[in-house]
Amino acid sequence: MKGLIFKEKGIVSLMEVKKPEIINDTDAIVKVSLTSICGSDVHLIAGHIPTKPGYVLGHEYVGIIESVGKNVNNLKPGDRVAGPAAPYCGQCEYCKNGNIEHCLNGGVHGSGKEFGNLDGALSEYIRVPNAHVNLLKIPDTVTDEQAIFVGDILSTGYSAAKNADIKMGDTVVVFGAGPVGLCSIVGAKLFNPGQIILVGNRDKFRLEIGKSMGADYTIVSSEEDVLSRISELTGNKGADVAIDAAGSSSTLSESTRCVGVGGRISLPALYSKPAELPMQELCMKNIQIRMGLGYLGDMDKLMKMIELGKIDTSKLITHRMPLDDAEKAMNIFTDRNEPVIKILLKP
């Protein structure tokens, strides 16, 4: 089968690789019907997340079950399924305490030996461990394109919104108009905020997509004073919630300073270097901060919301390409020489 291999720093190659097989009784082999490139793949290729090259990349997928281990009783060949980027066992101490993202027996698909040595989804087939826990059947009325983001960026965006404890009527500011930031808008809307403000840098295309997905106002940080504009939009009282999905020192600073008294800050982004926090100001304003890896345990709820027409992430899709063009797709996604948010690849 074909798979997109991380060969060495900065280089990927679509190559013939061995088709996965059942190893454990709780495994499933899934024929990938749709996959996508994620920003985390770019971080791995660039060496921002140190791993030893030589593995198939990718962790966003939907597909059809080809075979299951003898202890997988809730799924069968032919079932159309979505799976989480980071599969978990459901039985270890961390899983039982609700910290499935830190599963002692888990990992992240397509991220090398350092992250569990699990098959990458930028391929024709993938082995999914603990399939009875991780794989979710896709309803007949939900398309592959509607379901593709459930197991990663949609769950991450939703958990970012949930961690912010958004209340009806709140003003929510989202920093970052990338896929997670845009999915944070989708997640925030489920909690009935009063207004959503999206802050981005220079990519006005992404800001317009954000507006079409639920942002009431957009701010271009390179052209406007972000804090002054937020103050204006909130009647000088500050936002109730800030979500930093960008992960820079400047967006973290603005996230902490744009909220008013009793504000809540959610940090789903990964920061590449240390950043300072205005601790005295945060303390004096009774600000709460929550952070951590995206929670992937709400896939079933999100799938139901998609089925009911309450969630639509289709506007994130800017490119549709065959897996044979995976190298070209990675260049488009990395270079961003044309408007791009998510690229879907079909094996």
UniProtKB/TrEMBL annotation:
<dbReference type="InterPro" id="IPR013154">
    <property type="entry name" value="ADH-like_N"/>
</dbReference>
<dbReference type="Pfam" id="PF00107">
    <property type="entry name" value="ADH_zinc_N"/>
</dbReference>
<comment type="similarity">
    <text>Belongs to the zinc-containing alcohol dehydrogenase family.</text>
</comment>
<keyword id="KW-0479">Metal-binding</keyword>
<dbReference type="InterPro" id="IPR036291">
    <property type="entry name" value="NAD(P)-bd_dom_sf"/>
</dbReference>
<dbReference type="Pfam" id="PF08240">
    <property type="entry name" value="ADH_N"/>
</dbReference>
<protein>
    <submittedName>
        <fullName>2-desacetyl-2-hydroxyethyl bacteriochlorophyllide A dehydrogenase</fullName>
    </submittedName>
</protein>
<dbReference type="InterPro" id="IPR002328">
    <property type="entry name" value="ADH_Zn_CS"/>
</dbReference>
<dbReference type="InterPro" id="IPR013149">
    <property type="entry name" value="ADH-like_C"/>
</dbReference>
<dbReference type="InterPro" id="IPR011032">
    <property type="entry name" value="GroES-like_sf"/>
</dbReference>
<keyword id="KW-0862">Zinc</keyword>
<keyword id="KW-0560">Oxidoreductase</keyword>
<feature type="domain" description="Enoyl reductase (ER)">
    <location>
        <begin position="10"/>
        <end position="345"/>
    </location>
</feature>
<dbReference type="InterPro" id="IPR020843">
    <property type="entry name" value="ER"/>
</dbReference>
